[in-house]
Design a protein that fits this description.
The chain is an alpha/beta fold and 258 residues long. It is 37% helix and 17% strand.
């Protein structure tokens, strides 16, 4: 069963759908969406178990891609350009490989179409360990989380998922139990056998990130023969947040060319 996805919309023109990464949301992409809305009708969506979208079991990329296809159908869109970061990038790639007619162009941000051995279960478990319902302030949760996740920018990013519920108590707006159950699916990537997406594609890597490695280039070009691979110097995994102007320019050049 597919999940109805929450979204934010801006601009007019050819449709473009932004798919965030793990622990992200459409809200994180507002400034990028507004910039791209100069030439496109931009939909930034919350993927299942994130943001304001519904919760459901299963975090496999077949299910995530099916949610996006259903979103396009619900908006009356036969196809769209997809911009996806990390988990969202794998979701975009799966839809492009499984249903290429739905994808006019593809921008994949700092992820490759391969399984990864790194695990994010530590972040998920750390958030589950927090007794947020009894915390009075976000700062309390941040302080408690510091011993488990010492990097301040990472904690700030994760704490964007901490919201106040209708009962006045803090709660996570991300379905941590579903993410914990599906973490192996999130790290994996299994394209449909023999699938190729021969539409325009651009892979945008962060210069200080190792998510897109030279060893991945052959796999990228086998599955996406028209793929360009570009690197944004000085950016880590969250390329769009760390070098937003350079990222927008890289996407706009792709859109103009495709």
């Amino acid at each position: 069963m597919t999940v109805d996805l929450a979204w934010r919309e801006a601009g007019d023109g050819p449709p473009l759908v932004i798919l965030h990464g793990l622990f992200g949301s459409a809200r994180n992409w507002k400034s990028i969406a507004d910039a791209l809305a100069a030439t496109h009708r931009v939909f930034a969506v919350d993927l299942r178990n994130h943001g304001e979208s519904g919760w459901a079991e299963g975090m496999g990329y077949d299910a995530l891609a099916a949610d996006v296809a259903a979103f396009l159908d619900a908006r009356g869109l036969g196809s769209a350009t997809l911009v996806g970061h990390s988990m969202g990038g794998k979701t975009a790639m799966m839809l492009a490989l499984g249903d290429p007619e739905r994808v006019d162009g593809l921008v994949v941000v700092d992820i490759a179409p391969v399984p990864y051995t790194e695990t994010l279960i530590g972040h998920i478990e750390a958030l589950l360990d927090m007794d947020v319902a009894h915390a009075r302030r976000r700062a309390e949760v941040d302080e408690d989380l510091e011993g488990l996740i010492p990097d301040p920018p990472t904690r700030t990013f994760l704490l964007q998922n901490l919201v106040t519920g209708e009962d006045g108590r803090l709660r996570w707006r991300v379905n941590l139990e579903a993410l914990r159950a599906g973490v192996n699916e999130l790290h994996d990537f299994r394209p449909p056998p023999g699938a190729v997406y021969d539409g325009p594609a651009r892979f945008v890597a962060g210069g200080t990130s190792d998510y897109i490695r030279t060893a991945h280039h052959d796999t990228i070009r086998t599955l996406f023969p028209r793929a360009e691979i570009v690197t944004i110097p000085g950016a880590g995994h969250r390329v769009h947040a760390e070098r937003p102007q350079a990222f927008v320019e890289a996407v706009q050049r792709f859109l103009a060319g495709s």
